[in-house]
Amino acid sequence: MNSAPQTRPLTLYEKLVAQNTVRRIDDETMLLYVDFHIMNEYTSPQAFAGLQAVGREVWRPEAHLAVVDHVNPTRPVARVEDIEDDGGRLQIQTLSANCERHGIELFDLFDPRQGIEHIVVPENGMAWPGMVIACGDSHTTTYGAFGALGFGIGTSEIEHVLATQTLAYAVLKTMRVTVPGALGPGCTAKDIVMAFIAEVGAAGASGYAVEFAGEAITALDMAGRMTICNMAVEAGARAALIAPDERVFAYLQGRDRAPTDDAWNNALGYWRTLRSDDDAAFAREVTLDATTIAPLVTWGTSPDQALPISGSVPTPQSPVDERALAYMGLNPGTPLTDIAIDRAFIGSCTNARIEDLRRAAIIVKGRTVAPHVTAIVVPGSKQVRAAAEAEGLDSLFLEAGFEWRGSGCSMCLAMNDDVAANGERCASSTNRNFEGRQGKGARTHLMSPEMVAAAAVTGHLTDARKFDRSAP
Question: Angle at CA 19, nearest 5°, toward 18 and 21?
């Protein structure tokens, strides 16, 4: 790797790129070594086919992990052959065959570690500070919560990583988002990142690696930090980072794939160096006052079209706004809390960790889903599901009228049978509210898990802060 002496103060992002640079291709592009690569059944088949077509093998099979998560049903099946969707079944079978041929570890549908890739990798201790992690999914930015450089890649890049463990990488500009102060009661990491996206716009961080800092960020648990980095891509960020600290180290220690003994001590020494230098310059600085952030919900068809729950549907300011309101079937001036929902979904790589389910369970405890609402909970992994059941959270959701499902991406992107019907309105803890994202003609409102729970039991968008928040 590149060991050139440091000549100026560097940001954390610049340090991570420098340490993994194999060689400089040109002034803007590096050949970057990828420490760890993750695949799913949806984005990997063509990459494997490309290898096979030219007779190439995977260079370092141990540096890859494959996970079934995008197309699998969340209702129980006894065998892959029992999956009714022909395309989904074939994708899962193809991934299994490719992994067996190349000796790549696979968390298949029946593995106790199966789940959404960006949830199972951290919970098994596979993402460490300082790593470069690539995956054929844009929300690979999640690993920035550990001080790792994670980013999504396309099919041709997947093939290149499989064959060489490297990528041609265009260096990004740097942005620092500082969030001073403390969040108010009932406000969450989801609200911070939605506020950031609303502030800079859906393309406001395009071409940037974004580092989040400030008191409100360091106060977050790891689940909250992963939510922040996961959803930063919705502002166009190609990477998101939070400097690793003692909270990160405590999370990793003792996990299955984390270092142990002397390797742990050596790793800690290195990890503690991973921070932006005091005088490092960022191309752009953004500040968000945590004390002013309220629970947010989206009203349109882009994650930046969001307002505090106390607000009203805005008057359109552009043709884009007009199209969004027409698609969403909303009228300017309507209080957000007057918007009735048909569905509620708690899940996704953004908000389906045990911490998310605990907070939502506080809201649903002793309450019932509104009669006209269909509500489901899809834990982010089998390990999350087991932990929730051990705590009795499943009973709280079931007694309230939620469906309790198996793990997977599910209704986040409607690639299995969890789909909202044309015109149905869904309160969702996911990351995208694009037209058709949850089903053709489906209307999605993004919010935190507790806000989804509040909407489910009232039947309309609701401020979850009005509910009793005593622990279940």
Answer: 65
Q: Where are the beta strands (DSSP E) in 18-71?
A: 21-24, 29-33, 36-40, 64-67
- Please state, in angstroms and rounded to a whole number, the distance separating the CA atoms of residues 235 and 213: 17
Q: Contact at 8 Å (CB) between 343 and 425?
A: yes
Q: How many CA atoms lie within 13 A of 390 on its CB side?
A: 7
Spatial contact of 161 and 60, defined as CB atoms under 8 Å apart = no
Q: At what angle do helices 354-364 and 382-391 cross, to 10 degrees?
A: 40
Beta strand spans in 103-204 (E): 105-107, 132-135, 149-152, 166-170, 173-178
For every residue of 368-427, which 3-state class applies, written as one string?
CCCCCCEEEECCCEHHHHHHHHHHCHHHHHHHHCCEECCCCCHHHCCCCCCCCCCCCEEE
Tell me the mean pLDDT per 10 residues along the chain, length 472.
Answer: 68 98 95 98 94 96 97 94 94 97 97 98 98 97 98 96 98 98 97 98 98 98 98 98 98 98 97 97 98 98 98 97 98 98 98 98 97 98 98 98 97 92 98 96 98 98 86 48
| Torsion region of 271: left, alpha or beta (phi above 0 gives left; psi -120 to 50 gives alpha) | alpha
